[in-house]
Every structure is written in structure tokens, then in C-alpha cells.
Amino acid sequence: MADVTLENITKRYEDVTAVDDMNLDIKHGEFVTFVGPSGCGKSTTMETIAGLTTPTEGKVIIGGRDVTNLPPKDRGISMVFQNIALFPHMDVYENISFGLRLRKYDKDEIDRRVEKAAEVVQLGGMMDRMPDEMSGGQRQRVAIARAIVRNPDVFLMDEPLANLDAKLRVHMRTELQRLHKELDTTIIYVTHDQAEAMTMSDRIAVINAGQLQQIDPPLVCYNEPQNLFVAGFIGSPSMNFVEGRITDNGFNSDDVTIPFNPAAYNLSTGADVTLGVRPEDVFLSRNSREAADPTPPLTAYTDVLEPMGNEIFAYLKFDEEAESDMEKGIMPGQLLISVDPDTAIEEEQEVEVVLDRAKTHLFDTATGNAITHQIAPIDSTGAGGADAEVGSDD
Ligand code: ADP
């Protein structure tokens, strides 16, 4: 059993806290992905697990053993990195078996392990190939096979697909999932690509500025983000945010009014809150039957339209005269929505939109913490939807 536990891991460099009091509990057999923007501390966290760096504070426990001060080779881990460093003058067999030969394993044992690993990554029949005769994907598979032959308890993979082209990356994602199933091993994976994280992981650990923001299954991170950072980072295109305040009757900003009972969410009048809604949860009100529980309609104006084939991204603005700046992404007063590709919609057109209440989030603007992931209408129940409140024990 190779559970991996981080206890209060902090890693400080001179003036940077790369990892800030990280606590994680990864179970044997889990596929956990560290995701977050560049520089957030993903690799440093991984390096403390690997033993490539010593934490300033805290403990690393693998399979019940405190390994904080053990060298990498004694931790029962194998690593695969972004830069596939194969030995150019060695063929596939020699590359995969290199570590075992170095450790003077028996020839039969080496052959047995190499054969099995090659089978898992589907490189059988290529044992004599040299690295320069292989594609990027094949070379990456050699690197993975080299990690497999060591029979690790835990695989650590740091952006292993980053240098592959888009199509191959998608293919390798499926391969890694298959590998995970076949090997019944713990995989800890680092990526800045949230799509990669969403598709492969049992759980995603979202990290920002060295701090763990949320660790949950991908769809929980997507549907119930614990704070503004997770809400904005997970999902592409990103969630729309509208800053506003609580009135006696619900949410109000310059552009958006959503009636609900603030008391149902323990909100007081005047509180600064940010409303969040994903592009696919806003509907043209002529299509509002698509929203399970629509808000009253809001008037907006279409700006840029981006037909994607399977959907159209429509940038809406609330002020008809506003000039958009596509370089800056979604601006305050703008709303990105996704509509069906057959929708009759034109640029510079007045439209009415509704939000799906069941998919509309509220966050505390000051702390960023989620308040609720759905907003009940005032008249639906006497309680006004307290069930939806974050942290309720139901
Ligand atoms: P990520 O993998 O998420 O891109 P890193 O873990 O590589 O982030 O880096 C986290 C922070 O720690 C960054 O600000 C980075 O500049 C800093 N950092 C990483 N390694 C070192 C180092 N050896 N010396 C000083 N600062 C470092």
C-alpha cells in the first residue's frame, strides 16, 4: 500500500514561499493531479515527494514511512518528466533496462520486466529502435516504460505530455488512464493544463501561490468550486464573474439583478458578493426552457461571435455603446455565453438572457470563498433554498 501524505509541507527559498503549509492525503491507487498556473508550486510540491528537494518544514510520508530525509532511490517512486531524456546511443531495450542494469539485476529478471513494461506501453517489437527513429509519443512511452520496470509504489509525472503535439497529447491521456488501471498504482501528476487534469484524474488538487485551494474529483471542482480561484481556473472558457452587492431582495450590480432571499444564505444587506456563472449556464430567453430554473431575463447586446462548429461563443455586453477589447478577454460588464450552433444570432443585436439558477454561484468578494452553488427563487420554498448553502450538513 502506498498512500502518500504531506503534513504541513512548506518550502521557502530566500524570498519566495514556493509551497505554503500543504496538507494532502493521497490514497493507494489514486490518480491525483496537481494543477495551477505557472509558478504556483506544483513542481516544488512534487519534488518534495520525490526527494529532489527537502522541505523547510513538514513531513512526507509514503506507505506509512516518514521519507522526509530519505534520498529519492529509497522512496519507492519512479519519475517521468517533461523533457524525455533518453540515451541517444542506446536502443529501446537498453534505455528501458538502464536502471535495472545499473543495479545489477539478473538478466532474466531484466528481460521479464522490460517485456512486461513494453507490453503495457505497447512498444513490443520495437526493442531495437534507436530514439532518433521514433516519434515523440513513442519516445515518451519508452520513458514511461523505464519508470514502470522499477515496480514503483508511486509514479510521479511532471508535465510528461507538455512537449507533444495536441493530437498526441489527447491520445497519451487515454494511454495513461489505461496504464493506471493496469498497474494498480498511485499516480501523482503535474500539469498546468486543466483539460488534462479534468480528463484523467480521480482527484484534482488545485494550487495557487503555494497553497492548496481544493482537492476533489474533477466534476466537484467544476460544479462546486470552493472559491473564486478554483471557479476561474477550472473550465474553459472560464466562468463569468459579476461583482455586486446584496440588497433586501437578492443580488444587484450595475447590470445584473437576481431576486432571492439573502437570509437563506446568511447574507446581510450591503455584503459585497461576486456572482459566477459558466458560459453554458446562460441561455437566450427565447430558449429558456433549457435552463432548469431560469432567472428573470436580463437585457444585453451581442458583441463578438465565435462560431466553433459545435457551439457558438457569444460575447455579450450590457452597455450597448461599450467598446470591447478582445485582447483582454472578458471585461467587467461582459458575459460570455455558449449557444447552440443553429441559433439565429447576429453581432450587435439586442438579446434577453437568463441564468440557470441551479448553476449560478455566489462568492464572498473579499475572501473569495464560495457562499452557494445555486440560487433558489424567493417563492419556491418557505426556506428560500437553504439546502443549497455551502457547508450545510444535508
Ligand atoms: P510550478 O511548477 O507550479 O510552475 P514551481 O514549483 O516550479 O512552480 O515554483 C514555485 C515558486 O518557487 C516560483 O515562484 C519559483 O520561481 C520558485 N522556485 C522554484 N524553485 C526555486 C529555486 N530553486 N530557487 C528559488 N526559487 C525557486
What does this structure look like?
There is one protein chain. The protein has two domains: 222 residues, 3-Layer(aba) Sandwich (Rossmann fold), CATH 3.40.50; 136 residues, Nucleic acid-binding proteins (OB fold (Dihydrolipoamide Acetyltransferase, E2P), Beta Barrel), CATH 2.40.50. 21% of the residues lie in helices and 30% in strands. α2 packs across α3, α2 packs parallel to α4 and α3 crosses α4. The relative contact order is 0.11. The structure holds adenosine-5'-diphosphate.
What ligand molecules are bound, each kind once? adenosine-5'-diphosphate
The structure class reads alpha+beta
Number of helices: 8
Compressed to H and E, one letter per element, the order equals EEEHEEEHHHEHEHEEHHEEEEEEEEEEE
At CATH level 2, the architecture of the largest domain is 3-Layer(aba) Sandwich
Shape, principal axes of CA atoms: elongated
Taking strands numbered 1, 2, ... along the chain, how are they ordered across the largest sheet? 6-7-8-3-9-10
Cα end-to-end separation: 33 Å
Low-confidence stretches: 382-389
Rg (C-alpha, Å): 25 Å
The counted number of beta strands is 21
Helix content: 10-25%
Question: Sheet bearing the most strands, described?
Answer: 6 strands, mixed
According to CATH, the fold-level topology of the largest domain is Rossmann fold
Domain tally: 2
The percent range for strand residues is 25-35%
**At the fourth CATH level, what is the homologous superfamily of the largest domain?**
P-loop containing nucleotide triphosphate hydrolases
